[in-house]
Amino acid sequence: MPVAGTSRPVTTLTVHATGPAPPDEVWERYAVPARWPEWSPQITGVELPVDRLAAGVSGRVRGPLGLAVPVTVEHVDEAARRWSWRVAVGPLRLSLLHWVSDGPHGGTTTGLRLSGPAPLVLAYAPPARLALGRLVRR
């Protein structure tokens, strides 16, 4: 399937992690962008004009080597503990949908659905998996 406005095919991949942290705590780690570097080693800083996720907000996320990429939060549903955003890397776009739910035996399961060009999705999946594992730990 092509990315909207281009002829590039889209790859979609979903990753999950389950851990002992309570779902409300995990959601707060998502909902407050300043906290992202605490659990996501690939994020070294966040420049968003809000203290809490809000649909339509745009800014930048800093990663390794000081690389800053433009981001836009597309959707936030606090009650369902779901949110999505779009990341731009040059002409490439990556869409990310995150969710937080009760774990099967307590704790939390969190998931991430990545959609974008295959090389970008496949390169981002391992650090994303690591970050999700850290997100659900106490």
From TrEMBL:
One matching Pfam family: Polyketide_cyc2
InterPro entries hit by this protein: Polyketide_cyclase/dehydratase, START-like_dom_sf
Recorded superkingdom: Bacteria
Name of the protein: Polyketide cyclase/dehydrase/lipid transport protein
